[in-house]
Specification:
The structure is a single chain. Helix 5 links the parallel strand 4 and strand 5. The protein contains ten helices and seven strands.
């Protein structure tokens, strides 16, 4: 329910932050899926936002997770996409065969994994040579992540829920990474980074109370921050890496 709410949020900034990430991932799947039409793996499919697109572009798609709720939801998509197969699998010690995928999608997952370096090394093992990993994760010191540490304090979270008037749950982010850390974890097992991108400006209070006017200012700021030494202020970082 929370994940579906994010993309239709009544708060303009909240909705924009999640929709621009979704759109960048959609575009990356379309670009890299064309070159590799064989097998794809999504690690941590969540609400299944990307599974239909993956299933339309690949002969076989595996949706891997350790949470029954997400796998049960993925199973509801199998009737429309018989080439989709949800499986229980822990990416830090995957039981899937090595060099068996042309593309791996891992979006908003590694921040939930304590040993993200091991998870990324497993992704490299699972990809065929020349296969691609599409990965996104929040930036460690972005204002949104820093503000979230305050927003979920006892008592404060009740006020936040009153302001948004829609589901607001603890992020579960236990392993926020800088760009340098993600880069090192990708390069260590042998990934070659082909693309990098950053998106999403969040200005506390402006986002909550300034509505569409606040969003317009954040949208104006985004490209200017992206091309500056202050790019670490943007919320989400994206990587496309080749095995």
């Amino acid at each position: 329910e929370l994940q579906q709410t994010l993309y239709a949020s009544k708060n303009p900034t909240r909705r924009w932050l999640h929709c621009i990430r979704r759109d960048w991932i959609f575009d990356a799947i379309q670009r890299y899926g064309t070159a590799h039409p064989g097998r794809a793996l999504e690690i941590g499919p969540g609400s299944g936002l990307y599974l239909s697109l993956l299933a339309d572009r690949f002969q076989e798609v595996i949706a891997a997770d350790i949470e029954d709720a997400y796998l049960n939801h993925a199973n509801t998509l199998v009737a429309a996409h018989p080439n989709l197969r949800p499986v229980v699998d822990d990416i830090t010690r995957s039981r899937l065969p090595q060099r068996s995928f042309d593309l791996i999608l891992c979006t908003e997952v590694v921040e939930h994994i304590a040993d993200s370096a091991r998870a990324i090394a497993e992704m490299h093992r699972l990809l065929k040579p020349g296969g691609f990993l599409i990965l996104s994760t929040p930036q460690r010191y972005s204002p949104l992540e820093l503000t979230a540490k305050i927003a979920f304090l006892p008592g404060v979270v009740d006020v936040v829920r009153m302001i948004y008037r829609e589901p607001v749950l603890e992020t579960g982010h236990i392993n926020l990474l800088t760009t340098a850390q993600v880069t090192a974890q990708l390069e260590r097992p042998g990934f070659k980074i082909r693309e990098q991108h950053k998106s999403g400006v969040y200005v506390p209070l402006l986002a909550e109370f300034a509505g569409t006017a606040g969003l317009r200012l954040e949208q104006w700021l985004e490209p200017r921050l992206r091309d500056s030494p202050l790019a670490w202020l943007l919320w989400t970082q994206y990587f496309v890496a080749e095995a």
